[in-house]
């Protein structure tokens, strides 16, 4: 039987070897991992747990909140408030930041999360997940405000997600590569099942919502048309398509076997740069993708270089196998926008 390495042992040994995981960051990661276990338990109850369906409210994005969106958000808030590792939290499900209450010590980290990504898939039993991003509070003034969160993704101290699918898998980076941990439901522990994840630089698989094709910009249409032309076309090979409509599931597939994921700008809402959120979707996923040898841009610029103007800022996303993302980005840069 191969040696089982727990999440705690992995973090301790990574700190010993690379020194990237001080005690407060290790506590943060372990608390988030424990919260993801609780979310997995709620998700897996499905209809038996009275957790399905709408909560009858909308979030700051104007999206209908599912009961599990709110449950997952509350689990993450309660799990992270008392530990002394955080100054504040931000969530897709909350209009403004949540400052750690005065009754608890404040720490140096800022935690951002999409507590349950892909929630339109909850009621139809398709994989969903929790995405998180960790920043350091760089200003040493007392108190914490939204401005403390407005840092480009390249400042992240850590990032990860937990995908709730046939297995529950925690995927994590602290800037020293990507590791994957599978939840052992019998012991309740996260067990290291893959490290030094590497994305193939080429792929034959793209992920995009094809129903939006008529709204896309020319570079995106050009790229997808060439993929659809297959062997007889300019790419000289056939492509496959996937679209789970849970970013976590699509990104997990890409980390596991390669591919390119796109949620581009489209003309339906021209003032919006894209649908996905920069701070707690695109940035953490871009960190993971880059750490696994892939690439992540908004079509024109590295996503992790984008300086956010507001907490719930949206961004166009093209990420995955390096050579494909490079090609899509070159097509964009050849045109004026
Ligand atoms: P569409 C889920 O709501 C999400 O934010 C991402 O997880 C997913 O990739 C995308 O939106 C799906 O969007 O327009 O295909 O439903």
Distance between the termini: 56 Å
Would you identify the regions where 5 or more consecutive residues have pLDDT less than 50?
A: none
**Structural class, from helix and strand content?**
alpha+beta
Order of helices and strands: HHEEHEEEEEEEEEHEHEEHEEEH
What helical percentage do the residues reach?
A: 25-40%
Number of strands: 17
Q: Could you please describe the fold and organization of this structure?
A:
The protein is globular and about 65 Å long. The chain has helices at 7-18, 23-45, 67-81, 218-229, 247-257, 278-291, 322-333, and strands at 54-58, 64-66, 86-91, 98-99, 109-117, 128-136, 158-164, 168-173, 178-184, 189-194, 205-207, 240-241, 260-263, 276-277, 295-297, 314-315, 317-320. The longest helix has 23 residues, at 23-45. The protein folds into two domains: 7-194, 2-Layer Sandwich (Fructose-1,6-Bisphosphatase, Chain A, domain 1); 205-333, D-Maltodextrin-Binding Protein, domain 2 (3-Layer(aba) Sandwich). With 337 residues, the chain is α+β, with helices and mostly antiparallel strands. Strands 4-3-5-6-7-8-9-10 form an eight-stranded mixed sheet, sandwiched between helices. The chain has a five-stranded mixed sheet with strand order 12-11-13-17-15, sandwiched between helices. Strands 1-2 form a two-stranded antiparallel ribbon. The N and C termini lie far apart (56 Å). The site of 6-O-phosphono-alpha-D-fructofuranose has 10 residues, from loops.
Outline of the structure:
Helix content is 29%, strand content 24%. The protein is built from seven helices and 17 strands.
